[in-house]
Design a protein that fits this description.
Number of strands: 25
Oligomer: single chain
Helix content: under 10%
Largest sheet: 6 strands, mixed
Order of helices and strands: EEHHHHEEEEEEEEEEEEEEEEEEEEEEE
Number of helices: 4
CATH topology of the largest domain: Jelly Rolls
Radius of gyration: 23 Å
Shape: globular
CATH architecture of the largest domain: Sandwich
Strand content: 35-45%
């Protein structure tokens, strides 16, 4: 078996010369892209280019090579065996090697064959079908390049007249939006919209009121069977939104779609939070490995954990959670070895995790305030805890249900039917 040299876009490859035919786009590469790339990289979606056809992919081969080799694409930060998470877009080493070999062989197209099938992509803008409630807002936001850290609250006009059970939430930014990611929540009845909508002061919502996190390419939040989220009468939907900087101001549009529950509700879908208090975060200038730890009991009752979401800011480097049961058994169910502020997402479990009542959760975050951190806006200052992105946070959210809860509610269009 001989080695032959191949050059592509300035890169030198060693390609094994074998009797097997080299990989082709249609037979070998496209199925990988359909599974791991096209939720974002498709027409009229959030990615800057579509990667659904050979004609679309071929000009981006050099960039694709770099991104798959350093594993920055597809973006999926959590570490766990394959199958632990739903919507796990990570590439195996074999898939990376196949893409490298394909590019090294100058990207042969191949024929549209039996391995290629149309991707299972949404047929409309609403992934779960037509929603029951859609509320929309249009807002002018200053997004100039010297304002790279733009967070804003937005509040929607729709008010829930009665206690309402919902089963799913979908976020849909308008086409061409500069929205990078956002959190949705509901504000308690009687909440007054503040004049200043930056994320400062007392306007910050209670974490227990959180609904969903939206990032590009992630599916809508959907509650498991026989569970639902409860929004109280008089509440309104809001979002705190992170905008990417652009050349000038932008008129930004955002829709929130609500799907009402129909059927049985036996358990309420609730958000739990593990938080490091702001006064426990104080990172020295230039420090590349500053560790902050927070330990707390999750619940006196057993919990079923359905997903994890980690949250840090620009200096976030890694994050993990360790559970310790009352009998001393330890496990690490959630770990992000390479935290990326720009790709924060919710990681849904393929199988819900039963956590024994009285279990302690220890959250450990490592921060990099050095000049070697490319995302660091200023390595020369002390960094303390706070809500601004130039400050720091350390949080993990868990959406959970109580396995012992049996509400026995019959719900139609979000409202309880009296028995």
């Amino acid at each position: 078996m001989a080695r032959v040299f191949s050059t592509f876009a300035g890169f030198m490859f060693f390609v094994l010369e074998t009797s097997a035919a080299p990989p082709t786009f249609h037979e070998d590469i496209l199925p990988i892209f359909q599974r791991s790339c096209q939720t974002c990289h498709r027409p009229d979606s959030v990615a800057p280019m579509s990667l659904t056809t050979y004609k679309e992919v071929r000009p981006w081969a050099k960039s694709i090579l770099l991104k798959v080799l350093d594993r920055s694409m597809p973006p999926f930060g959590a570490e766990a065996p394959k199958g632990f998470y739903l919507y796990d877009t990570r590439l195996s080493q074999e898939e990376i090697d196949l893409i490298v070999e394909w590019i090294g062989n100058k990207c042969p197209q191949g024929k549209f064959g039996v391995k290629t099938k149309e991707p299972d992509l949404p047929k409309s803008q609403w992934d779960l079908g037509e929603p029951d409630i859609v509320t929309h807002i249009l807002k002018n936001v200053n997004l100039t390049n010297d304002n790279a850290n733009v967070w804003r609250f937005v509040f929607f006009d729709y008010v829930f007249e009665r206690d309402t059970w919902i089963e799913a939430v979908q976020v849909l930014p308008d086409a061409g939006s500069a929205i990078h990611h956002l959190n949705t929540f509901y504000m308690d009845p009687g909440f007054q919209v503040p004049e200043e909508l930056e994320i400062l002061g007392n306007a910050h919502p209670k974490q227990s009121n959180g609904l969903s996190l939206w990032t590009a390419g992630r599916p809508p939040l959907r509650c498991p069977d026989e569970t639902a989220m409860l929004i109280p009468a008089g509440a309104r939907i809001g979002a705190n939104v992170h905008f990417a900087p652009t050349a000038d101001s932008s008129e930004e549009g955002l829709s929130i779609a609500i799907y009402l529950k129909n059927g049985t509700v036996n358990s309420r879908f609730r958000r739990y939070a593990i938080n490091a208090p702001y006064d426990t975060i104080r990172i020295p200038p230039g420090e590349s490995e500053h560790t902050v730890t927070r330990t707390m009991a999750l619940s006196r009752k057993d919990l079923l954990v359905h997903d994890f979401t980690g949250h840090m800011h620009y200096r976030g480097k890694s994050l993990h959670v360790e559970f310790e049961t009352p009998t001393g058994e330890k496990s690490v169910p959630f770990s992000i070895p390479r935290f990326d502020f720009y790709w924060q997402q919710t990681y849904e479990l393929s199988k819900s995790l039963l956590v024994q009542g009285g279990t302690k959760a220890t959250m450990t975050g490592v921060f990099d305030n050095s000049s070697s951190n490319d995302a660091n806006p200023d390595s020369g200052r002390w960094v303390e805890g706070g809500v601004r992105s130039v400050d720091e946070m350390l949080q993990v959210y868990l959406n959970c249900t109580d396995p012992a809860e049996h509400l026995g509610l019959t719900v139609k269009n979000g409202l309880v039917i009296e028995q």
